[in-house]
Structures are given as C-alpha cells and as structure tokens.
Amino acid sequence: MFEHLREDIACILERDPAARSKWEVLTCYPGLHALVLHRRAHGCWKRGWRWLGRFISHLNRFLTGIEIHPGATIGRRVFIDHGMGVVIGETAEVGDGCTIYQGVTLGGTSLARGAKRHPTLGPGVIVGANAQVLGAFTVGEGARIGSNAVVVKEVPPGATAVGNPARILQKDTDTRREEAAQRMGFSAYGLTQGDDPVSQAMKGLIDQTAGQEHQIALLWQAIEKLSALPCGGPRAGLPSDAHTTEQFDAERLNQLVK
Fold first, then answer.
1. 118-162 per-position pLDDT tens digit
2. What residues form DSSP beta bridges with 225?
3. What is the rounded CA–CA span in Å between residue 6 and residue 25?
4. Is the pLDDT of residue 79 over 90?
5. How many domains does the chain have?
6. pLDDT digit string (tens) for 197-212?
7. Together in a domain, 152 and 233
8. ∠ CA 32-33-38 to the nearest 5 degrees?
9. 200, 196, 197, 109: which is closest to 152 by C-alpha?
10. Which of 19, 31, 197, 207 is 20 to 30 A from 42 via CA?
11. Same structural domain for residues 147 and 77?
C-alpha cells in the first residue's frame, strides 16, 4: 500500500509543476485520494464483496468528484489531474504511467452484461480534458487524446487522436510536416490544430510544397545528367536558374500565412 502511495506522490511531483511538496500532494490532490479509495473498492470487488466495493466507490465520488467503478483496473503511477467529472467504467483498464485530466469519460457502448465494454489505455497514454473514449478498444502505448475529442475506434501506439469524431494523426507524419514547416520559416505547431480550416489549409500547403520541391529537384538532377557533354561541362545543357537541390521561398510563403 505504502509503495503505491509513494509512487503516486512521486509521479504527481514529476508531472505537475504546481505541486510544491509531498505533504501538499498527500493532503490536497483529489486524484491521489480517488486512487487510494479505488484500490480499497477494487480489493472488495475482487473478493466478491460487490456492495461494499460499490459503496466505497460512491463515497469516493462524493469526496473527490471522480467516479471509478470498483471493477476497473488502474495501473501504477497513474495521475488524475484536477479530476472533477472523470468517469471510468467497470471494464476499463488504465495502464501504468497514464495521465488523465478533468472531465474525461472512459465509457462503454454495449449493454451486454459480463462483456468487455470499456476502453483499455496502454502505458503512458495522455487523455486531455473532457475527452470521451467510448468502446471496447485499445489506445496504444504513448498515444495522446486531445481535449474534447470523442474517440470511438482504436488508436495506434504513439499516435494522436483529435476532433469529434476523432481523427488519428500519425506521429511520423506530424514530425515530417513540422520539419518541412521549419525549413519554410515558420512552425506549423504555432497554428491552431484540429478542425480549424486555416490550419488544415496550411498543413496541405506544407505537404504539397515539400513534395513538389522534392520532385522538381529530382527532375533537374536527371536533366543535368542527360545534358552532360564532353565539351561543355556538367551543366552545359541546363538553364542558369535551374535548382538541383530542394529550396523554399520562405518569405513568399510567410506572406500567404498573414
């Protein structure tokens, strides 16, 4: 019991810059209190003391504003930040090191008794404020759920889910897009992400420009090889303004953003 408590306090001090001391975390963090009470309720539930488990869960909700069904499985070093309005269903599973913010629901979409109805969060998942994760699927290790997202399908490891219904943004794609944006002189992550039409237009511009620039550079390289003559040198047949390497007109693209 005390080992779990020490881990919980340590993870809160690590992830919350507002936490100033172990004593403050122990006495003033409802997310920590909710997890301590849930472990008691879950222990009763596993022993078959179902009413007692539900009653402890009910007291937990009254005291902390966080509702965790006693049948839910919660891993180690889980941090429920603020916590008001969090609901975690009976067959939900929360992996080690997850972070859950206020207003989150890990809910079910099936009425079948005894079946797996609620989501499974892999290790290190972050679920943003007021997100709704609904259904018996898995959110992969290290995935992120954006605030107010409504997730109804599986999320791959390391991916990000945003919007309603949530769209899956692959980590590798976002990384390539950000690298291209930095070469153009601005950061795509400085824009509003998600469903904002300007943001979507800029993402499309970044992807299209990067792809076209790469193709143009390849074409000029091929022309350079074909135009090489013994009497003229390697660029004898190329125009003076031909670019065989990828280049971006950052100033012109920045003007389009304004």
1. 999 999 999 999 999 999 999 999 999 999 999 999 999 988 888
2. none
3. 11
4. yes
5. 2
6. 556 666 667 777 777 7
7. no
8. 100
9. 109
10. 19
11. yes
Q: What is the pLDDT of residue 201?
A: 65
Order the strands of the 132-134 sheet from edge to edge.
Answer: 67-68, 87-88, 105-107, 132-134, 150-151
- The per-residue pLDDT for 205 is 74
**Nearest-5° Cα angle at 73, 69 to 75:** 130
Q: Does one domain contain both 83 and 159? A: yes
- One domain for residues 121 and 215: no
**Cα–Cα distance for residue pair 208/152, rounded to 1 Å:** 30
Structure tokens at 206: 């970044």
Last residue within a domain, chosen from 135, 169, 203: 169
Strand order in 138-139's β-sheet?
73-74, 93-94, 120-121, 138-139
The structure tokens listed for 45 are 């539930």
Tokens of 82: 């603020």
R_g over Cα of the chain: 26
Residue 39 domain boundaries: 2-169
11 and 89 in one domain?
A: yes
Residue 135 and residue 23 in one domain: yes
pLDDT band at 248 (very low <50, low <70, confident <90, very high): low
Could you tell me if 161 and 90 lie in one domain? Answer: yes
> Number of H helices and number of E strands within the chain?
7, 15
DSSP designation for 141: T
Give mean pLDDT, residues 57-76: 95
- pLDDT category at 164 given cuts 50, 70, 90 is confident
pLDDT digits (tens, 9 = 90+) for 80-122: 999 899 999 999 999 999 999 999 999 988 777 878 999 999 9
